[in-house]
Amino acid sequence: MSSKKKTILKVIILGDSGVGKTSLMQQFVNRKFSQQYKATIGADFLTKELVIDNKNVTIQLWDTAGQERFQSLGVAFYRGADCCVLVYDVTNNKSYDNVVSWKDEFLVQANIKNPETFPFILIGNKIDVEENKRQINNKKAQQLCAQLGNIPYFETSAKEAVNIDQAFDVVARNALQQEESLDFGDDYTDAINIHLDGESSTCGC
Amino acid sequence: MSAEKSVASLVKIPVFLSGDTESYELARDDCLGERSSSSVNNDLNSILKQVTKDSAPFSSKLNFPEEKDDECEDMQLFLNRRKHFFILSSAGKPIYSMHGSEDIIVGYMGLIQTIVSYFHLEETAEAGIGTGDLRSFKNGDVCFTFENRYPIILMGVSNMQETDVESTQQLDFLYNYLVTTLSKPHINRVFRQRESFDFRKLLGHADVACLNNICTDLANSSNLGLIIGGLPCLKVKRHVRVKLEQILLRYTSPSVLYGLLVGPKGKLITVMRPRRHTLHTADLQLLFSMIFNTNTFKTSSTDRPEFQVNEEFWVPICLPKFNSNGFLYAFIQFWQIQRDDLLEKLGIGSADRTIDPDATKIGLILLSPYKDQFYQVRDISKRIIDRIMESSTICRELYLSMITNTPPEGVCPLVSDFIFKSKKHAQYFLMKRDDEGEHEHMLKYVYSRLHSAVVTNTLVSPQKNIKFNGENILQRRMITFDSSNFIKYTKWKVCSSQSQKSFNPTACIQSSPQKSDIVTGFVISTPSFELYIVHKGGDIDKNILAQTSKKIIKWCLKNEGRLFVSGGAVF
């Protein structure tokens, strides 16, 4: 089982309510877009298989609710993520401003050991809107990426399927790298031997 | 009617069952025992007359196909399974699922993690402590049970009318299997290093095969030991057991902590143990699952894998109840009793080739605390086996016990199957008249329902405390009836699939009653023993059942030394 199974990558998608997290995932996984807005309740799960450098991987996408009233899922939800996707809406200043706090929130809740090397990706969504509605330009977004530790940045449109695959390809690659970075081959059968000197606690009956 | 109909159509086999359930509880003055044979008969008969309708009838689903593990991609099949087991990491990554392809299960694993964590948080917030995990919930007939053993989460799904207690025990057993193969510190360490760790990397093919087998057993109630909580025992004459103990005691050594002599299907023959320790039943069940539920110790050359003889195995194993922090090393060897030369020496004649070769093999398991003492332990094993094989008395008795399992004349002429479990020994003895073939798992399901009734009753009605001192068989063994005294009598009407040419569920429902069979389940539970009787093949009179059960109890108590291992070779 272990050898033929695909690598599973846990990817968390974070961002303010309404920036298009669910739409991005739907477009990526199902090639669908819906105009209707439905708030995600609590959480949603989608999976997608990809081939990265001849390796089969399954991305387990954890779509979170942006609304604050569902935030109680926190700790457990972020636990053991391989990559975190931060999403903002290019037509919404506030969602851009909140990216930093989403990242901080994630780092605290997920208890990440090496925050400097943990893979984040920034996505500016809704670039299909008219230029005059756009509030965050590419330059400003790049500045944010630099500030967050030179994380990769993609501008996407979930509605018109622009740049989605490219963004998630990088997500998968970075997650895979993270997943493989800590493979240890210790001989577990050499784990603590039972020494009978301290026998008092060993009997189960 | 409509309920049965939908059940039958769901499982798509010609089944019709009626859950004719009657339940009896011992009234305050009731007792079981031969005060004088007529008064006891009256007692039991009066119990059996006190029929009260069961307010919570048993499942009517008695006929169902066996359910095996799969990695099927069909979502509808996946959703229609009657039993599921999921094991995942606390990060929501899959570790194991009994059914479904990886594509199907990956999403569910996330969902399970979220549900478990949500309740963990809620309860933590409300109670101020993290003890209020979600244990189970029901949706219609389907029961979902959870075990949160950070960093591992387990969930079971069942629509087999099992109680929470049973389902939780099943999850516990699966969790402990993981501990058995890896030990608790190792599991904790890999997740402490990284919560996103893919635990499947640590599970070998044999581990997955064993998990599959355990789940298949649990889904089909096929492991009686797990159902009724005990170890099976081989019936061996008392003086032969004593001889075996004497042999084992000649070879005690600091290299060996425990020794187990086992017959086919993990039936205990005798044990060797230090005075200060006994091994926990659950640990032995795990050990036997590892040995008897996998092909690890079997030959792969033939179509039908069988236990290798003349092969020695040295396997690290963590026994969670004994010590979940480290490994013992198990030396395992099997050998064949049914050999022409040996049988000739014993004057038994030639070997019967129709018998399953594994049904006449004996296994010796020696558990050592030291990894580097393989050669010492092997030497001990060789000497023990040589001594056993030298003794014609022992070999003859072991061989005869393995090939015959019929009750003595007159003890239970009318029932097909019974199990007598001695609570003191945590062992049980199964008497089987015939192999029931396709009905086998159905009968085992009846045992599991009877056990469930015992467990549920014990949990809900703890008020009676009656003692009875009987004569005859009970002169020296006082049978005490208290809170756990319990009798249950249940009948199922089962439509035999053989009697139906067409696989149309409605055809079966309309079929005449003559074409159906009646399966009767009967259990008596006292503080010292449990007796389970399953009768197939027509209706059985309650009085006859009562008489039979008394005879069986009398016989089992009289033959306790033959049926069970008590104490073993203690050094």
Automatic annotation (TrEMBL), chain A:
The keyword Nucleotide-binding applies. SUPFAM superfamilies: P-loop containing nucleoside triphosphate hydrolases (SSF52540). Keywords: GTP-binding, Lipoprotein, Methylation, Nucleotide-binding, Prenylation. GO terms for cellular component: cytosol; fungal-type vacuole membrane; multivesicular body; vacuole-mitochondrion membrane contact site. InterPro entries: P-loop_NTPase, Small_GTP-bd, Small_GTPase. Pfam families: Ras (PF00071). CDD domains: Rab7 (cd01862). Gene3D superfamilies: P-loop containing nucleotide triphosphate hydrolases (3.40.50.300). One of its GO terms (biological process) is regulation of protein-containing complex assembly. GO terms for molecular function: GTP binding; GTPase activity; protein-containing complex binding. Signal peptide: none annotated. Belongs to the small GTPase superfamily. Rab family. PANTHER family: RAB FAMILY (PTHR47981), RAS-RELATED PROTEIN RAB-7A (PTHR47981:SF20). This is GTP-binding protein. The lineage of its organism: Eukaryota, Fungi, Dikarya, Ascomycota, Saccharomycotina.
TrEMBL record, chain B:
GO terms for cellular component: fungal-type vacuole membrane; Mon1-Ccz1 complex; multivesicular body membrane. InterPro entries: FUZ/MON1/HPS1_longin_1, FUZ/MON1/HPS1_longin_2, FUZ/MON1/HPS1_longin_3, Mon1. It comes from the Eukaryota. Keywords: Autophagy, Endosome, Membrane, Protein transport, Transport, Vacuole. Residues 255-385 form the FUZ/MON1/HPS1 second Longin domain. It is found in: Endosome, Multivesicular body membrane; Prevacuolar compartment membrane; Vacuole membrane. It is a peripheral membrane protein. Residues 83-205 form the FUZ/MON1/HPS1 first Longin domain. GO terms for biological process: autophagy; protein targeting to vacuole; vesicle-mediated transport. Residues 415-560 form the FUZ/MON1/HPS1 third Longin domain. Belongs to the MON1/SAND family. Required for multiple vacuole delivery pathways including the cytoplasm to vacuole transport (Cvt), autophagy, pexophagy and endocytosis. This is Vacuolar fusion protein MON1. The gene is MON1.
